[in-house]
Input
Amino acid sequence: MTVIKALIGFILLFVLAACQQKALPDIHHDPYPVAHKTDSSDVYFGKRVADPYRWLEDDNSEATLEWVKKEQAVTSAYLEQIPFRESIRKRLEKLWNYPKIGVPFRKGAYLFFSKNSGLQNQSVIYIQKDGEDSARVFLDPNTFSEDGTVALSGFSVSPNARYAAYSLARSGSDWKEILVIDIATGQTLKDHLKWIKFSSMAWRGNGFYYSRYDAPEEGKAYSAKNEYHKVYYHTIGTPQEEDQLIFMSRNHPQRTNYAQTTDDGRFLIIYESEGTSGSAVYVQDFKRRDSKPRLVFPGYDQEYSVIDNLGDKLLVMTTVDAPKWQLVAVDPRHAQKEKWHAVIPESKNVLRSATRIGDKIAAAYMEDVKSVVRLFTLDGREAGQLQLPGIGTVGAIRGSKEDNTAYYSFSSFTYPTSIFSYDVAANTSRLYYRPETGLNPDDYTTRQVFYKSKDGTDIPMFIVHKKGLTQNGQNPTLLYGYGGFNISITPRFSVVNLLLLENGFVYAVPNIRGGGEYGEAWHKAGIKTNKQNVFDDFIAAAEYLIDQGYTSSSHLAMYGRSNGGLLIGAVLTQRPDLMQVALPTVGVLDMLRYHKFTIGWAWASDYGRSDDSREMFEYLYGYSPLHNIRPGTHYPATMISTADHDDRVVPAHSFKFAAALQAAQGGDAPILIRIESKAGHGGGKPTSKIIAEYTDMWSFMMYHLSVIPK
Output
C-alpha cells in the first residue's frame, strides 16, 4: 500500500510539473547583435592571449554605445514576454513598502537617525534635540534629484555638533562630493568639495580631513586608473583650492590613504594601503608641538583599526599574532610589539568589531558565522553580554564614551532588521524599533549545516525555506555566494529574498573560503593561487544540496555580485551542467586586465596580477571566466547584469563576457545582459531601481526554473 501511495504521489508531482511547464509560454529571444572581433591581443610571459572584444572597453565609443543599445533591446523584449513579470514587480513593491530606520547616534544635544517611509528612493536623515517630543527632517536626499539617482553616501557630525558634513554620489559612481550644513540654522554652507573617493570625514577643530584624487581627464572619469590618493584638511568656510595637503604616497601611486581622528581630537591616524587588506599606520599626536604623521605600524601584511584612545595610548584592533583579531593598547611613541598590552586577547572566535560605549567596550564576535556581543571594562575584564533575540547578525553598534546609551541593529534571514537600545550602567537592552513587515518567522526555518569541499575542508552553509519542505529534489533553489576580500556573509534580512521563500524556494548561503568568517587564515585560503578553493567550495555546496534532495541541477539557480559575480562566472564556465540559471552581477570577469581600470589594481592583494609572474598569470588564465568560455558548450540560462556608471567594476567586464558567451552558446538557453542606466556598482541605488532590477532577475530565474509565482 505504501508503494502504491508513493507511486501515486510521484505521478501527481510529475503531472503538476508538466502542467506548470505547459502553463508557461515559450519565449524566443531576438538575434543578438553582432559583436565584431578584432585582432587585439597581449603577450604574457611568451604566451599570446587574444582579446577580440577589447573595443568594448571603450564605453564612450559609438560602436560600444550601439552594441549596448541593441543588447538592451534584446533583453527588454525577452523580459517583456515573461507573463508574471508585472505581478512580481507589484509583489516586491508591496513587500518593500514598510517603514525602516537606521541605527541612531548622538552628538551633543542631538540624536540623528535615517528613516525610509517605505518606497522612498532614498532614506531621510532625521534630527531630534534633547527636550523635543519628536524628530524632524534634517536632510532629505530625495530632493537631490527627481529620479533618486543622486544619493547620500556619507554623513558625519562634528564633535561639538555645530556642523554636519555629507557626501553625495551621482548615478551610483564612486566619485563623491562633500557639502556642509550649519546644524543650528539648517543652512547649507558654500563649502563644496569634489573628486573624492574612498574617503572619511574626520573632524578636528574647525574642519575635517578627507581623501581625494586629482580631477581625471575629461571623458575618462569612470574608467581611468585612480592614482595618487591624497589626504587633505578642509577648513569650514574656505574654498577647496585652499585645502591643506596632509599626506600622500609620493613614490607609490597605487596606494590609498584614509584619515581618522580620535573622538577627543588628540590623534590623527592615517591608514596607508596597497590593496584591500593590510595597511601601514601613521599617527600624529597634536599634543606634541609641530608633530607630523609618523609611521607607527609598518605595512602591509597585517590589519590595524584604531577604535579610540585612552589618554596617551591608542586602542587598536589588529591581526598581528592574532589571525582572529585582538584588541591592544599601544603607546604610539613606543609602539614596539613587546610593549603592547592585550586588552582583549585573541579567542577561538573572530572579533569583528570593538566599540567604546560609556565605560565599557562592546566586542562583537562571530561564532560559526553568528553574532555574539561580549562586554568588557576598559582594562579588559569581562562585564557581561548583550542578550540578542536569536541567531543572527548584529550590525552597527553606535555609542560614545560620554553617553550611557548605545544603539545597535539585529537581523537574521527571517527577522527584519530591528533597532535596540542598550543601557550601559544597567546592562540591559530594550527593543527600540521593530518594523511591521507582515512576515511570520514561524512559517520558515533556518538550518546551518557543514559539508565537505573538494579538499575535505568543512564549510558551513545556511539553508532557509518554508517549514514542511519535502526534500524530493524538486524544490527551486537559489544558491548565493561571495568568497573574497575578508568579507563575511552573515544572516541578514532581505525583502527580495522573502518573495522567493514565500514561493517555495530554498535559499542557501555557503560561507566559502576567501571571506572572513573564520579569520585571516580562512581569507588567505581563498586568495591568489588558492582562489580555486572558493569555486570548489561553491560547487560542493551545490552538490550537497542536490545529494540531500533539496533540489536538482534543473531546479538550481546561482547568484553573486561583484567578487561574487566572478564566483558565478567561474563556476558557470567550469561546471555549466550544475545549474539551470546563472546570475553574474557587476562581476569581475576579465582576470587578466582587471587591474588596468579605476581602482582595480587594489584587488591584487586578493587576486594577484597577470603581470606578477608566469605562475600567477597561468593561474589567473586558468580560471578567468572570460578566457574559459568554450564554443559549442551548452551554457545555462544566464542574465549578466551591470550598470553604465559602475566605476568600480567597470562595465567592460560584463560587456566582453556577454559578447563571448553569446557567440559560444551551443544550446538554446538565452544569454542576456541587463545594463542599468544612471546606476553604479550598487551603493546608493534608489528603491525604484532596486525593485526594477530584482523584478527582472527574479522573473528571468523563476521562468527558467518553471516556477509560477503565487
Q: What stands out?
A: The mean pLDDT is 95. The chain has eleven helices and 39 strands. The longest strand covers residues 188-196. The longest helix spans residues 2-23.
